[in-house]
Inverse folding.
């Protein structure tokens, strides 16, 4: 009962803050989905960091470090920062092309046409919904490690309903404000847990020496498996997050381009050590074989639970709820903003606001059901990452090249994905999805992501060349995006 009260209290605290900040400030649908040109660099830094990190940082980086070593963890950290670096270039460009823009799908629709828009919209919604489900699953599993008697559906329902309540009421404004509060909690808590654990185990030198004895290959920066994993993670995280609507909402909301670039620069610098610190618990686990039971995904909780006082469990619950709510409100509002822009008449503000709030709550129902079943969403993440990798270059090349056309984007993306299936593993890793007997390829995420990206890049360039040489149609006029 005490843990349930704690979860309710923490969740309600964030909910009240979100409601209080956004009360009486949502006058129209534009203010609900984009607080245009109004967020300064300080809050932008916090919300960019909070958007990208979630409860996944307590599981995935640790598991990566244990299974693939330090070099893979470094790749994960670079991957976490890579979208922010890319947005440094792409964000101001889209703000210039579409000063009154709302969503990335809106850009795709105007630039490439309806078919490309439907395709990219599906990619964006699928990725963000998988992310949403993964976050709810993570908070439930974390709390159950501390209090196994509490039902999964109760945990995810409490956190999910409170987050949805303040997000559906306050929209993006509430999401950005609570991101700032959650950021101020997440970073200090993670650092305190890390330093306390390192101190309890005798300091960094003792930990490194133990890892050298127990698993020396995990510290080898030349580990080929680790390098391959690092490359895969960088491509996957970069590609998927460029199609994350939550980031684009914040790009349009920045007060100006200078503030946006400053925020993205500092955010990318902050994200790298956050992922490294979280993942370092994996290396710590390899040094403490008595506490580590051999399950990589929960290594952080095993080590912290073994080496630190029981009251630390309260800090872990606070940390994981802050992480989940910081990403979950972004995902809910991001998906809702995409859908209402496509299905509603934006001129009818009151009706659209009601529709958006309804959509936000409806999104929660399947997310809670899936999360309560504790399904593995990792393979769905891989699928979303692969599809995003196929379309990342063609879609964003269209911001700069007048030659890029919608059919070229669709063709190059699908060709890249098709070729990559020769390497993309089945869900059970028993072989590649697309078996070509003459090639005899083995499943490899790195080869899959690399081939997908390279084929789509080469294809769009070839198609543009052919179009320029033989087509009689006019080049695209970027002024059309301003209409």
């Amino acid at each position: 009962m005490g843990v349930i009260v704690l979860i309710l209290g923490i969740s309600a605290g964030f909910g009240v803050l979100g409601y209080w900040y956004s009360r009486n400030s949502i006058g129209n649908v534009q203010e609900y989905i984009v607080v245009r040109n109004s967020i300064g660099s300080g809050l932008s830094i916090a919300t960019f960091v909070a958007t990208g990190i979630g409860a996944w940082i307590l599981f995935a980086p640790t598991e990566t470090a244990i299974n693939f070593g330090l070099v893979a963890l470094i790749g994960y950290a670079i991957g976490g920062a890579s979208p922010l670096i890319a947005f440094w270039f792409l964000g101001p460009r889209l703000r210039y092309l579409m000063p009154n823009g709302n969503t990335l799908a809106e850009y795709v629709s105007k630039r490439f046409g309806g078919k490309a828009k439907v395709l990219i919209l599906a990619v964006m919604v699928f990725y963000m919904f998988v992310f949403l489900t993964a976050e709810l699953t993570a908070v439930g599993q974390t709390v159950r490690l501390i209090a196994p008697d509490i039902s999964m559906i109760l945990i995810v329902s409490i956190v999910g309903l409170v987050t949805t309540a303040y997000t559906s009421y306050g929209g993006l404004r509430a999401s950005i404000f609570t991101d700032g509060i959650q950021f101020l909690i997440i970073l200090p808590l993670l650092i305190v847990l890390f330093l306390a654990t390192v101190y309890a185990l005798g300091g960094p030198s003792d930990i490194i020496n133990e890892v050298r004895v127990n698993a020396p290959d995990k510290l080898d920066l030349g580990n080929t498996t680790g390098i391959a994993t690092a490359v895969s993670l960088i491509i996957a995280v970069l590609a998927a997050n460029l199609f994350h609507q939550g980031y684009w909402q914040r790009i349009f909301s920045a007060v100006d381009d200078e503030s946006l670039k400053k925020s993205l620069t500092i955010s990318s610098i902050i994200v790298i050590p956050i992922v490294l610190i979280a993942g370092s618990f994996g290396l710590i686990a390899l040094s403490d074989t008595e506490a580590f039971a051999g399950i990589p995904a929960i290594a952080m909780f095993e080590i912290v639970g073994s080496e630190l006082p029981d009251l630390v469990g309260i800090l872990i619950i606070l940390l994981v709820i802050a992480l989940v709510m910081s990403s979950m409100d972004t995902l809910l509002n991001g998906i809702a903003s995409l859908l209402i822009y496509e299905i509603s008449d934006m001129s009818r503000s009151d009706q659209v606001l009601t529709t958006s709030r309804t959509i936000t709550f409806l999104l929660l129902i399947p997310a809670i059901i899936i999360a309560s079943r504790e399904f593995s969403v990792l393979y769905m993440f891989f699928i979303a990452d692969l599809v995003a990798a196929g379309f990342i270059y063609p879609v964003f090349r269209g911001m700069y090249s007048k030659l890029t056309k919608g059919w070229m984007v669709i063709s190059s993306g699908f060709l890249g994905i098709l070729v990559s299936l020769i390497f993309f593993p089945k869900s059970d890793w028993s072989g590649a999805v697309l078996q070509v007997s003459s090639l005899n390829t083995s499943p490899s995420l790195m080869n899959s992501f690399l081939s997908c990206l390279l084929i789509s890049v080469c294809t769009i360039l070839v198609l543009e060349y052919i179009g320029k040489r033989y087509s009689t149609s006019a080049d695209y006029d970027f002024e059309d995006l301003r209409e």
